[in-house]
Design goal:
By secondary structure, this protein is an alpha+beta fold. It has one domain. The chain is built from four helices and four strands, in the order βαββαβαα. Strands 1-3-2-4 form a four-stranded antiparallel β-sheet. The radius of gyration is 13 Å and the shape is globular.
Length: 104
């Protein structure tokens, strides 16, 4: 079901999603843990579509596959036993900006 959720929910529960899903966030890139997010399956695209209609309607862009989000969260959790949602968000932003994992 297509719906908007908070980025926080995705970061805290990345394994709740299918490997085929992708994370979409606001196109303005002014993200925080409360940013609206959508987890959508790109396999559901109609022929000729470049982005899911739900993402377009909500001005969301593709950011990462869920597999990448899972890797970011897993890496942070391996470094720090009890990562807060802010730790996970910092790791997420670091990966966005540097294409590398953060050192916590």
């Amino acid at each position: 079901m297509e719906k908007l959720i908070k980025l926080e929910e995705v970061l805290l529960n990345p394994n709740d999603y299918s490997w085929a899903d992708s994370l979409f966030l606001p196109e303005n890139k002014n993200w925080n843990i409360n940013s609206p997010a959508a987890v959508l399956n790109l396999d559901d695209l109609e022929e000729g579509e470049v982005s899911p209609q739900f993402a377009l309607d909500n001005k969301l862009i593709l950011v990462f596959s869920i597999q990448e989000v899972q890797d970011i969260v897993e890496n942070a959790n391996q470094q720090r036993e009890k990562c807060s949602v802010n730790d996970l968000f910092d790791a997420f932003l670091f990966y966005c900006r540097n294409d590398a994992f953060i050192s916590l």
